[in-house]
Amino acid sequence: MESSVQPTIQAMSTHRSTDGSHEGPRAAINQEIRILNTIGKRFVASIDRFQVHRALLAALQDLYSFAACCILLKDPYELFIIPCYPLRPALIDAMIEHIVNAAKAIDFQHLDAEQLARTAYLDAPDEFARPRAQNTATRTQIGSKITIPLTVESRIIGLLSLFDENVGSFDTELLQMTTIVADYAAVALENVRLRERENALWRAAELERQRLELIIRSMSEGLLITDDQGKILSMNNSATRLLWAAHEELKRDLPLRILAATSDVSWLSTLADVTEQAFTGQVVTNQELIVGTTGDNVPLTLSVSAAPLHEGGDSSLKPIGVVTVLNDVTSIRQLELMKDEFVSVVSHELRTPLTAIKGYTQHLVRRIERRIRRARAQQMSTSASLDDLPESYDLRSLTIIQSQTDHLERLVSDLLDLSRMQQGQLHLHFEPFYLADLLSEQVRSVQGSAEQHTIYLDIAVADSYVEADRARIGQVVGTFLDNAIKYSPQGGQVTVLLEDHEDGYKVSVIDQGVGVSPEHFDHIFERFYRVHNTASHQYPGIGLGLYVAKTIIEGHGGNIWFTSTLGAGSTFHFTLPRVPHPRTTRKLQ
Ligand code: ADP
């Protein structure tokens, strides 16, 4: 006999007493309640799916004698075969085939029969896992079967199937009870599934947390997390090491600002400033913090960056704290110091021989010029050309030496300026002059050496009176002009433009040269920064001209910037207030 796949709800049969009188529905109800209670308790006590299987098997075995029950779960598909005794492989195959057909009949989507057969899980005691060897030796066919949907809140989560090798094993009268058992099992399985999913999520989160903790702990950067009050929530090992000078203070459970106010450690207030600034929503980058003792050659120096921490990473919400990263930059500062000292020594050492070379070259030039003048006087009586004179050749050589020495002198003076700036010894000497005059002087002086270029001077102001350091402003214009010529090797036009600008003037030097590509825009004014983008052309220079120019212009209270298009040319600008700006420092660093 084969039972229907669709369970029909039937009343439990009522019990009669032996004398034929009805004990009444109450006894039947009481019995039903007792059974349900036992079943319910078994399921409720199940904390994993295998315990649910055991509870299900026990409940069904109270109702029928059968070979196996099977659970097919959806999303993802999983098939569990729970045998009551060892089964033959052929019988298992037949059961799987029936389950697949039943699932297809009620429209379980994307069910891969082969895959299901391969991954079916035999949930049996070890001895049941072996094929059955006794009495039913010829039986490999299914005699009876029953399949019931497993539903939770009217949602089908899978199928429960019962199989037996004998015919007529399943009593339709017990179908209602079987359905109730299936409902219990469905809820219990769904709970287990939810718990498993929750556990898996928790495990993944925990794993991620441990991974993060490991990364943070092994980071060479110090990491400091503060809450909305500025109190330290956590610090990694590197932060503890780097901020050792304040370890006693940092142990106290107080906001950084209060720690700073009650401590002798001066840099704590800078650290508090940084975290408070980040807490307002701003990202602070590379703020320098000297935490070492001043007696050291280069004290322990940190570069501090901080960013606000937002709940769930949503930056539109108020921050809940701040994450601060500390980088030890002492060795970089040490290298910079060594470089500065080297530059200072070398530039000073170079100046003396350079001055001598310049002086003697000038002396020789004058002597040769005198000789040539004498020869010119004699030439009146002979027909020899002046160009053929050995003195003319010497003069040409000396002029080259002179121009190269001038170039070298400019380099050395840039290096000297740099070391003076480093030591805060580059002073400005303000004097009144006309900017237009200075520009035309500068244009004249480069015109001679720029044969391939046409240099225009465009004075678009009525007056150009300023009080500034004439030599230093001349140096800036010279740097702009030298660069405009140097970085337009094909020649072309260079325009020097003077315009009115707010309370002063704007000077622009426009060229049609190689231009600068955007990735270098932010670095062009950094010291020693050079663009190495032209394999075909090497431009001489050391990357100091614009750095020095920026320091000079900012020292006057002006601004310096540029615009450029790669391959089309650049325009370098600076502004200069008419009279020294109140924020002018005069001492440049
Ligand atoms: P240097 O010319 O000695 O390299 P600067 O500080 O004067 O040093 O200039 C820095 C860098 O800026 C240069 O190496 C060059 O790449 C770029 N640069 C400056 N002026 C120009 C310009 N007019 N056109 C294109 N690139 C320029």
Biggest sheet strand order reads 3-2-1-5-4
How much beta, percentage-wise? 15-25%
Radius of gyration: 46 Å
- Secondary structure tally: strands: 19
Major sheet size, sense and barrel closure: 5 strands, mixed
Task: Provide the descriptors you would attach to this structure in a database record.
589 residues, alpha+beta, five-stranded mixed β-sheet, 44% helix, 21% strand, elongated, disordered N terminus, binds adenosine-5'-diphosphate
Written account of the structure:
With 589 residues, the chain is an alpha+beta fold. It contains 14 helices and 19 strands. The protein has helices spanning 25-44, 49-63, 89-105, 113-119, 175-218, 237-242, 247-251, 256-261, 267-279, 330-379, 390-422, 435-447, 470-486, 545-555, and strands at 68-73, 78-83, 121-122, 144-152, 155-164, 222-227, 232-235, 284-290, 301-310, 319-328, 426-427, 431-434, 453-459, 465-468, 492-501, 504-510, 560-565, 569-577, 587-588. The strands form 5 sheets. Strands 3-2-1-5-4 form a 5-stranded mixed sheet, sandwiched between helices. A 5-stranded antiparallel sheet has the order 7-6-10-9-8, sandwiched between helices. A 5-stranded mixed sheet has the order 13-15-16-18-17. Helix 2 runs antiparallel to helix 5 and helix 13 (470-486) packs antiparallel against helix 14 (545-555). The longest helix has 50 residues, at 330-379. The radius of gyration is 46 Å and the shape is elongated. It starts with 24 loop residues before the first helix and ends with a strand. Residues 1-21 have low confidence and may be disordered. It binds adenosine-5'-diphosphate (ADP). Adenosine-5'-diphosphate binds at residues 479, 483-484, 487, 511, 513-516, 524, 529-531, 541-547, 570. Adenosine-5'-diphosphate is lined by residues 479, 483-484, 487, 511, 513-516, 524, 529-531, 541-547, 570.
